[in-house]
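---------- Forwarded message ----------

FYI, see the TIGR00266 family protein record below. Original note from H. follows.
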Amino acid sequence: MPVLEVSLEPGESVVAESGQLSWMTDSIRLRTSTRVGSGGVFRAVKRALAGAGLYMTEYSAERHPGTVAFAAKLPGQIVPAPVEPGRDYLVHRHGFLCATGDVRVSLSFQRRLGAGIFGGSGFTLQRVSGAGRMWAELSGEVVRYDLAPGERLRVHPGHVGMFDSTVGFDITILRGIRNILFGGDGLFLAALTGPGRVWLQSLTVANLAHAIAPYLPLPDFPE
């Protein structure tokens, strides 16, 4: 599994969802709150209702330099991205790993009603904004596209990793009775429209679970 180690000088800090820590040096101090990096209690609660973490933890180097490490939960890549005013990112529900600087993480509401109703929990996106640097955890192989204005990419929703906030996002329904009943590709596709950069992930949690399910031991039922 990939691991990210962040080196901090005195006065510097990194923010992550609670429970992401893998290891750290003794000089690092922790502060856990619903307000850290989330823009307040109300936004934190909305994130929690959408399936993301309620609490965020700030790891700070106070008097001495230190190191904090975060390990990925699935095979894949940890992708860095600069965050600037006017340059936000939308990341899949569990994709945000950590960030430095004044970076905020909030639930992103979709502009189109169809995305909110038909997408379900699989289409929950978090918005990463502010100023600093963030790292996203994407599973499997990562494929990047730079979409031109008006260029559209239709993607199975589980493969959407993250994308620039300039990219339009909507949920489209697969057309055709045969496609819906016998296609096996699901009922919905995510439509990503440029301009902007898109990061896709080749491994989905559902596909991984389906692949390993036949090899899991069966539970023992009492006679």
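H. also flagged this: The two ends are 40 Å apart (CA to CA).
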